[in-house]
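Your task:
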Amino acid sequence: LTVLNAGRRYLKAEDLSGKVFVTSGLGGMSGAQAKAAVIAGCVGIIAEVDEAALLKRHRQGWLMEISNNLDHCVARLRDARKNKIALSLGYHGNVVDLWERLVHELDTTGELLVDLGSDQTSCHNPFNGGYYPVQLGFEEAKQLLSTNPGKFRTLVQESLKRHVAAINRLADKGMFFWDYGNAFLLEAQRAGADVEKRGANKTEFRYPSYVQHIMG
């Protein structure tokens, strides 16, 4: 319902075939995003750093494909988008790398490859494994978390700033992003990312919440 209503409200589209939804998280609550993309008929690219979560969703049949190669992901995205094929593709890697690759595609080809975007990392708990920084691989980041949590926190906040910068770049070109109630925008703001709404008070963000703006 969230993906369908985001398409209706922000893309003015009842039919999401050929539209691309990019997000992250295939864990406990976020795992439904892959299935939702296919039910809605769009192309869903979902990033997840934990291979175990990806494999679980793939075994369940909720996730159609898995890849750890961004070149492959972009190629599959282009093909499914062009041919209006419903697809859920799990990218085994950090969502920041995925967002930045989409910015690179925009900068080099002039093509905006994503229509809808969100995030379901566990940003209510970003410094204890809910969000993994793009600067490190998954296992390396887990090791740092246990040995130097202060450094881990710094990397998470740097990663959040990069995360938002890429989203902002694509949103400026017409991609519609929303907050999934996971404290992503709040933690990004605390990290110093550019998420505040222009001309509004500091408690308002430039991107909407799915609760009020989509489900409401």
Remarks:
- The mean pLDDT is 94.
- The longest strand covers residues 43-48.
- Residues 87 and 134 are 25 Å apart (CA to CA).
- Strands lie at 20-24, 43-48, 65-67, 87-92, 116-117, 176-177.
